């Protein structure tokens, strides 16, 4: 692939200040001319001087920290984005050096933020400075933001910084206003918090809101849920419907169901067909769940948002490493605690310093109280904590597609 050759060139020949061979020149030009997305621009490869146009640009990209993958994306979407606008190449509005200089001067941002914005939004390379200013002012106006808020939003989700931003934002606001009854201020707040929502499937967005309304959600509860977990609106309606099956089987009232989803918004996007039944079976095997699943679901809903792996780790640790401390009476409370930051470091500290701890008490007090109570040096405890990876321990969202939306560059 040509983009691989270009990337290798950027990180090797360009770095070593060596020139491409005649054969490499011919090969690169031919590949650019023949590459399907660039065929419409006839003779594009012949118009590029790889030594004068591309090499300095690649060196500059490299100085900004762009990876081979990033350069590959730019090649696929806009090969001229890998060149300088030095007269021999008149297909660019501005090259990466001109764009970087403008963004620094206009928005007072550093190279790291510039790299993030350009990585995710290649359209800036073919936009004039006036167009970029116009886009920025549009986002400020349509969402009623100040300069700092607008810039923070663009850094959070650079893909929104396009020529059709106003259209996409207004479509989402219209759906929220009509179907959820949100005010202008509420619409703006949700988009400011989760700007990637403007690229959600509009049909799903509309149908999911209708479904949530039929399940008893009102404007205020919908706003709370979406503010915490907008991913529920990217589900196919049939999948979102499944999330209500277990509460319905347990004969929960609409109010109880809404309360559990509001307090634990991740639960609505965890697969109720494969993941939740596995957890129920696991908790039965761990003797956490006896016969009253309804009580556990209502009173300890957060337990079902912990990943299967973290629940298994807590079980093994309790029955192997921490066996000398005995079984906690509040077994549900134990499995609800964080393994990496609470359970393991405190138990390991107790083992290392020969302390006898009560799992029902010492795992629930604050860290400072724990250290004072058992005379454990804070420095030594911090060393122990650094040995263990700290994660959220929340369940992997099987139908969580927003990560793809966030990572996909705008071509």
TrEMBL record:
Q: Keywords, A to Z?
A: Transit peptide
Q: Which GO terms describe its molecular function?
A: nucleic acid binding
Q: Please indicate if the UniProt record lists Transit peptide as a keyword.
A: yes
Q: Where is the signal peptide?
A: none
Would I find Transit peptide among this entry's keywords?
yes
InterPro entries on file: MTERF (IPR003690), MTERF_sf (IPR038538)
Q: Which PANTHER family match?
A: CGI-12 PROTEIN-RELATED, TRANSCRIPTION TERMINATION FACTOR 3, MITOCHONDRIAL
Q: Which family does it belong to?
A: Belongs to the mTERF family.
Name this polypeptide is given: mTERF protein
Q: What's the source species for this entry?
A: Tetrahymena thermophila (strain SB210)
């Amino acid at each position: 692939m040509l983009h691989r050759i270009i990337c290798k060139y950027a990180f090797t020949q360009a770095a070593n200040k060596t020139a491409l061979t005649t054969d490499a020149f011919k090969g690169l030009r031919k590949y650019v001319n023949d590459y399907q997305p660039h065929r419409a621009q006839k003779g594009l490869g012949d118009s590029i001087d790889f030594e004068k146009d591309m090499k300095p640009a690649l060196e500059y990209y490299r100085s900004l920290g762009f990876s081979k993958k990033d350069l590959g994306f730019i090649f696929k979407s806009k090969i001229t984005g890998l060149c300088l606008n030095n007269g021999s190449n008149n297909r660019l509005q501005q090259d990466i050096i001109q764009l970087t200089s403008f963004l620094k001067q206009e928005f007072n941002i550093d190279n790291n933020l510039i790299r993030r914005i350009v990585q995710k939004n290649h359209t800036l390379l073919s936009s004039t400075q006036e167009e970029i200013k116009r886009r920025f002012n549009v986002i400020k106006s349509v969402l009623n933001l100040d300069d700092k808020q607008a810039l923070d939003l663009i850094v959070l989700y650079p893909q929104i910084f396009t020529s059709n931003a106003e259209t996409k934002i207004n479509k989402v606001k219209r759906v929220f206003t009509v179907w959820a009854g949100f005010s202008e201020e509420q619409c703006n707040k949700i988009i400011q918090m989760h700007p990637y929502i403007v690229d959600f499937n509009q049909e799903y967005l509309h149908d999911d809101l209708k479904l949530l309304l039929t399940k008893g959600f009102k404007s205020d509860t919908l706003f709370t849920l979406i503010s915490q977990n907008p991913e529920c609106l990217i589900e196919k309606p049939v999948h979102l419907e499944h999330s209500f099956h277990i509460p319905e089987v347990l004969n929960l009232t609409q109010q109880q169901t809404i309360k559990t989803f509001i307090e634990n918004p991740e639960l609505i996007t965890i697969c109720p067909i494969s993941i939740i039944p596995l957890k129920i079976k696991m908790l039965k095997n761990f003797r956490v769940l006896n016969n009253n699943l309804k009580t556990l679901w209502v009173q300890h809903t957060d337990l079902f948002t912990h990943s299967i792996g973290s629940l298994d780790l807590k079980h093994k640790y309790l029955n192997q490493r921490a066996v000398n401390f005995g079984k906690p009476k509040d077994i549900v409370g134990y499995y609800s605690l964080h393994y990496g930051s609470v359970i393991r470091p405190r138990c390991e500290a107790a083992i290392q310093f020969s302390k006898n701890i009560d799992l029902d008490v010492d795992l629930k007090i604050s860290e400072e109280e724990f250290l004072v109570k058992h005379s454990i040096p804070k420095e030594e405890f911090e060393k122990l904590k650094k040995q263990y990876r700290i994660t959220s321990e929340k369940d992997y969202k099987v139908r969580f597609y927003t990560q793809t939306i966030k990572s996909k560059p705008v071509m």
